[in-house]
Amino acid sequence: MDHDATTSSGAATGRRPLTRTLVAVGIVIMLAGLLFGYDQGVISGALDGIQKDFHVSTFLLEVITSWVTLGAMVGALVAGGLADRLGRRATILLASVLFTIGAMVEALAPGSYVLVLGRLVVGFGVGVASVAAPLYAAEMAPARVRGRFVSLYQLAITIGIFVAYLVDYVLSHSSGWRVMLGVSAVPAVLLVLAVWPLSDSPRWYVQVGRRDDAERSLRKVTGARDVTEDLDAIQGAVAEDSSRAVGWREVFAPQWRTPLTIGVTLAFLQQLTGINAIIYYANQIFAAAGFTSPQSQSLATLWAIGAVNVVATFVAVAWVDRFGRKPLLFIGTTGMGLSLVVVGAMFLKLSSVDPGTTAHTTGTTGEGLITLVALVVFIACFAFSLGPIVWTIINEIFPSHVRGKAVAVATAANWFAAWLVSQFFLSLVGLITTTGVFWLFAAFCGVTFVFVRRVVPETKGRSLEAIQSMWGDQDALAAAMRDE
Ligand code: BGC
Known about the structure:
Elements: H1 7-13, H2 20-54, H3 58-86, H4 88-108, H5 112-140, H6 143-170, H7 177-182, H8 185-195, H9 202-207, H10 211-222, H11 228-243, H12 248-251, H13 257-272, H14 275-288, H15 294-323, H16 325-350, H17 366-384, H18 386-396, H19 400-455, H20 464-470, H21 474-482
Helix pairs in contact: 1-11, 2-5, 2-6, 2-8, 2-14, 3-4, 3-5, 3-19, 4-5, 4-8, 5-19, 6-15, 13-18, 13-19, 14-15, 14-17, 15-16, 15-17, 16-17, 16-19, 17-18
The chain binds beta-D-glucopyranose.
C-alpha cells in the first residue's frame, strides 16, 4: 500500500489552509488515538473494584487486564485485509461499533468470564482502528501535513490515557469500575459520528475502480476544482503497486529482512521496557510504594504518569526532526534504564508488599516519593523517545509496496509483546520480586540502546525513497549508521 500516493496533492495545493474535510480527518485520527489511549489507561483504576466484586485470582486479574492486547493483535493483523475489501471508512466504522458493543458488555458483565469476553471484543476494535485510522489519515492528508497527522495520533493516545486516569480518579471513591469501562464507548460513538459524513480515501476508490468517487473525494480534501493531475498520480501509483502485487512472501523476502528485523524488534523492545506494566498497574505500584488511599494512588497516577506522558510527547514532536531519532532514543533509553534501576532499589528497601495486592504499608515514605520521582523520569524519557519514535521508524523504513502488510506485522508484534508483559507482570513479581522485574525491564532498556546503536540507521531528513534504496546499498546504510 502506498501511503505516498496523495503526496502530489500536497504540491498541487501549496500553502492552502486546511479544508473542512482535512480538519474532520484530523478529528478522526485524534478520536482513534483517544480510544486506544483511554483503553490502555482505564484498567489501572478499575482493577481494585473488579477484584472486590468478583474475587478473582491474580491470573484472572492479569487476563482481564491483558486480553485487550490479545484482541488488538488479531485486530491489527486482519485490519489491512478489511481496509482493502470494505474500504478504510467502513473499517473504522466497524471497529467503532465493535468497540461500543464490547464496552457495553464490559460495563454490564455479570461475572468475570463475560468481562473477559468484553475485553477481547474491545481489544479487537482497538487493534483494527490502530491500523485503519492512521492508514486513512495518511492517505487523505497531503504531504505537508502528513507527518503532523501521525504525531497527532501518538499525542491523542497519551491524552486518552490521561483522560482515563482522570475518570479513574473521579470514580476512585466508589466501586465505579463499570462506569470507567462503559465510558470508553463515548469516543467510539463520537468516532462513528465523525467518520459517517466523510468519504473514503481517493486512493481506495481508485484501487476499486471508482474514479468518479476518487475525484469527488480529492476535491473535498484539497479544496481544488481541478484534481486531474493528482488523480493521475494516484492511478499511476496504484497501477505500479498492483503490477508488483505483493503477497506475504514478499514481506518476508531476504532484501527486506533488515527493515523487518528493525521494525519488529523495536516494536517488541518498546514493550519489554515495561511501559504498559506501569501504565496498567500504576495504582498498585503506588500502593506498594506507600500511597495508602485509593485517592492518593489515583492522584499520583494521574499527574506523575498521565500528565507527564502528554507533556513529554510534545518534546518529541518538536525535536524528532531537528535532533534525529537516534540521539533521542539514546537519551531516552538511558534515562528509562537508570530510573528503573532506582525504582527496583526502592522496592528492595521497602520490601513490603507486592503490587499484586493492595495491602498497604504505613503511608507515603521517602522511598515512596523517590519511586514517584523515578517513575516520572521513566515516563518522560519514554514519551520523548521510544513511545513516538518507534512508530515513526516503523512507518518510515518499509518500501511502499510492502508497507501495509509490514506495518501490520510490526504493530501485531507490539500488541503481542504488550500482552506478554501485562499478562505475566504480576506473576513475575511473585516469582522474582518487584525489584527483579523492574531490573529486568531496565536490562531491556540496555538491550534497546545497544540494538539502536548497532542496527538502526538514522532516518532523519532522508526521503522515503532514499531509505528504501538504503537496504540494498551498503555504503548508504553505513553512512546512515554513522549519522548519529
Ligand atoms: C505504545 C503504547 C503505550 C503508549 C503510552 C505507545 O507508543 O505503543 O503501548 O501505552 O505509547 O503512551
